[in-house]
Specification:
The strands form 6 sheets. The protein has a 7-stranded antiparallel β-sheet with strand order 2-3-4-5-6-7-8, with no helix packed on it. Strands 13-14-15-16-17-18 form a 6-stranded antiparallel β-sheet, with no helix packed on it. The protein has a single domain, classed as Methylamine Dehydrogenase, Chain H (7 Propeller). The chain has 335 residues and is mostly beta strands.
Length: 335
């Protein structure tokens, strides 16, 4: 049964639709330009008041992406790390010497950049050469801490914390299992990993205390902290799952808030940059805007298509980009 949420307020009419012509795997904003990362070769740029542009950035599959205010960085199976600006100008910033796949990329403070290929992680500050760290297994995810040059690296049986400019050895935080993603809280107090099993794991960095967040029906593929880091929004269920991070213990010993139930899986979440609102994309193409305080919903896209694969807010919070596995995409103007 298709979920159209016909009985709730709607902003569907404010959508600028876009046919990407290929599966959308990620979305970002460069100022007011929406950037859709396609599964093969290209990006699709949609400025606020201009026609779409489609720069080719890789000679093959696009495997990973990340962005800051000025550039989208992508990694491909051609062994290249490429940065693209809002005008569609692309620059190759690194090429793997063995032409290995660039599985993960991350952007950090002051223009820092990280990427991984196989068991190796690389970090380059805004100036200088890249530094390399060999991990015990294939890298599963990368995330910078909000301050300083510090990188969290997820891998099999745990997480590594690396200060590339320090002389000390990287610190290993152990937890059995396959860790496939990493995220550091906005205040830098917690680091979270998503796992191959339907669960999240985390550590409080002050004392390395473990925390396990379980109860999901599927692997958690999308997670994002709300503005100010009060809540961790996650997919992996037929609802929006929100873990509390307000106190010094984070979610330890607490149950999550559960909002926006649907008949299909929540695939992607994206927190509003200025308000306690989360955009949720579902497996039937439904997109909801959900207010954390009371669970109030606004319909952003009807559930009448392929799974949502990407969501992104503009920095102002006045536009939401979405992309689906069948190439249907668009920008919802909320300003």
């Amino acid at each position: 049964m298709t979920d159209t949420r016909a009985d709730i307020p709607s902003v569907v009419a404010r959508t600028r639709p876009l046919a990407a012509g290929a599966p959308v795997v990620a979305a970002h904003f460069l100022q007011e330009t929406a950037v859709f990362v396609l599964g093969e070769e290209a990006l699709l740029l949609l400025p606020r008041a201009d026609e779409a542009r489609r720069p080719t950035v890789h000679a093959g599959a696009v495997l990973s992406s990340a962005a800051n205010a000025t550039r989208v960085v992508t990694g491909g199976d051609d062994g290249k790390v490429v940065a693209t600006d809002a005008e569609g100008k692309s620059t190759t910033v690194a090429t793997d010497t063995g032409r290995r796949w660039i599985d993960h990329v991350a952007v950090g403070p002051s223009g820092a950049l990280a990427w991984s290929a196989g068991k190796d992680a690389f970090v380059r500050a805004s100036t200088g050469a890249a530094r390399t760290l060999a991990l015990p297994s294939t890298v599963g995810g990368l995330a910078f801490a909000p301050k300083g040059l510090r990188l969290a690296i997820a891998h099999y049986n745990g997480l590594t914390l690396w200060f590339p400019n320090a002389l000390t050895e990287p610190e290993r935080l152990a937890w059995k299992g396959s860790h496939l993603g990493a995220l550091v809280s906005p205040d830098g107090r917690f680091v979270i990993t998503s796992m191959q099993e339907p669960a999240l794991h985390g550590w409080r960095l002050a004392d390395r205390k473990d925390m396990r967040m379980s109860g999901y029906s599927a692997r958690v593929r999308s997670l994002d902290f709300s503005v100010g880091g009060k809540w961790l929004a996650t997919s992996g269920s037929r609802e929006l799952i929100l873990w509390p991070f307000q106190g010094k213990d984070g979610p330890m010993g607490k149950t999550p808030r559960v909002l926006a139930p649907a008949e299909v899986q929540a695939e992607v979440v994206a927190s509003h940059p200025k308000q306690d609102v989360v955009a949720v994309g579902y497996a039937d193409g439904l997109v909801l805007l959900v207010r954390i305080e009371d669970g109030a919903e606004i319909l952003a896209r009807k559930g009448t298509g392929a799974p949502i694969a990407a969501l992104a807010w503009s920095a102002s919070g006045t536009a939401l980009a979405f992309g689906a596995e069948d190439g249907e995409a668009g920008v919802i103007d909320l300003g």
